[in-house]
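Internal tracking record. Fields below are filled automatically when a chain is submitted to the structure queue. Please do not edit lines marked as system-generated. If the sequence contains nonstandard residues, flag them in the REMARKS field before resubmitting.
Queue: standard
Priority: normal
Entity type: single polypeptide chain
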Amino acid sequence: MPSPIPVTRLLPTDFGLLVGVCSSPLTKHTGALTLRVPNRTVPTKLASRLWSSVIYWRELRDLEPIGSGGFGLVFKGSYLGETVAVKRVKCAKNKLASRQSFWAELNAAHLRHPNLVRVIAASTQANGDDVMGESGDSVIGTIVMEFAGEMNLQQVIYSPAEPLRPESYATDIVRALQHLHSQGIVHLDLKPANVILTRNGVCKLADFGCSVKVETQHASVCRSEIGGTYTHRAPELLKGHEVTPSVDVYSFGITLWQMFTREPPYEGDRQHIIYAVVAYELRPDLNKDVFSPTGPGCVFKELIGRCWSAEPSNRPTAEQLLTELCELSL
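SYSTEM-GENERATED OUTPUT FOLLOWS
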């Protein structure tokens, strides 16, 4: 069974213990005192900063399904007067992987950053089955997040009618990575589909189901099996080596290439691509017109090449990337 969410990460210091009918992974539903989100009398601004181990199910309304994936469903709805996205994590064929994905989603739940999708509340309880119209038999947990936008970066890239600002989007993504890495968190699944665009054109990094925590920015953690998307996965991960923040920089390089070319990075058989990336340093084509001396991506060609270097130590850090991107935008 997963361990409880630490109480010290749940609520601001000005919140106490409240009595109410609610769901919490920290306690059984016995009517005793328990942590819960505030009711409507709490100012919206304060409620919007809340990260709680409780979902107050009666405040979760107007849910409509907007997406699905390997680990469950995503809904759009209203919670405490705020538009939210609700991820319902279900037990896939690999129960352990499903549980790991749910708890990994909460690695960055305590963080507040303009380029990260904010977690509002989460619970391992299934009290919301009636609200969500589902059976809770296979539910591992539910996560309530801010509703950041209607579109992700992948949809924008592959929709010719949609305007795309690679320089601005790249800076937003790197700001998110810099903050994550400074907090000892590696995303491990950075790709256009996991970047949400707000109505104001701001990028927010989402989906932490593959993330891991490391003690410091330069520390590493070894894992025999790493999730994520193979087209954006660093070669050292494909070889089963250690996880460091530089793997996110590699993924950023692939994503940045996609933003300029508006093309998929590879075509062909999955195993052949993985083998070529590891054995022959296969990378997307940097000889396209967009990277020519007269193309808009010409100044980014060298930067992309450094990001996806086969040697992790040759890649810039997120902090270095942010400095370079800010200088390029001047």
